[in-house]
Specification:
Layout: H1 2-20, H2 26-77, E1 120-122, E2 131-134, E3 150-151
Antiparallel strand pairs: 1-2, 2-3
Length: about 160
């Protein structure tokens, strides 16, 4: 009989244990979702600001890379690429460059700026032998913040 009684006791304890278990109420879930939303509202703009700052830094680094490649091109050929040849002369030999010893950029192509636009190359430049410019996030000359131009002459 003792065995039969213990089986009944176990069944009763399982039933009462399930009655004591509760799920989350709708109000509790809504409170948690609201708290998560508030946290995201505070943190989100900071994360987006870091993202835009990193694009500006990436453009500055790419322009420095172009400057180094242009100087190597100059050492090999005795001149900088013309405006017509552009930055493409750093990855493919130009017609007038007999002593071209490139490619001067890794990857075999001229990268776009972090906003997906081509860099502006001028030779002769207004601020030196050449100018390399990223027009920033807006793609137009001038601007403030992330829309400001990133140039080879203001590092």
């Amino acid at each position: 009989m003792e065995q039969g009684a213990s089986v009944l006791e176990r069944k009763r304890s399982c039933r009462t244990g399930r009655r004591n278990e509760r799920g989350f109420t709708l109000v509790e879930i809504l409170v948690v979702i609201t708290i998560i939303g508030l946290i995201m509202a505070l943190v989100g703009p900071r994360v987006l600001n870091y993202l835009s700052e990193s694009k500006v830094k990436a453009a500055k680094i790419q322009i420095q890379s172009f400057s180094s490649a242009l100087d190597l091109f100059y050492l090999d050929t005795g001149r900088y690429p013309s405006r017509a040849e552009g930055l493409g002369a750093l990855v493919q030999p130009a017609g007038g460059a007999a002593s071209w010893n490139g490619p001067y950029l890794k990857g075999g192509n001229v990268p776009l700026d972090p906003w997906g636009k081509a860099y502006v190359y001028r030779s002769p430049g207004q601020h030196g032998a050449y100018d390399v410019v990223s027009l920033g996030s807006d793609g137009q000359e001038g601007g403030d913040g992330t829309a400001a131009d990133i140039t080879s002459w203001s590092r």
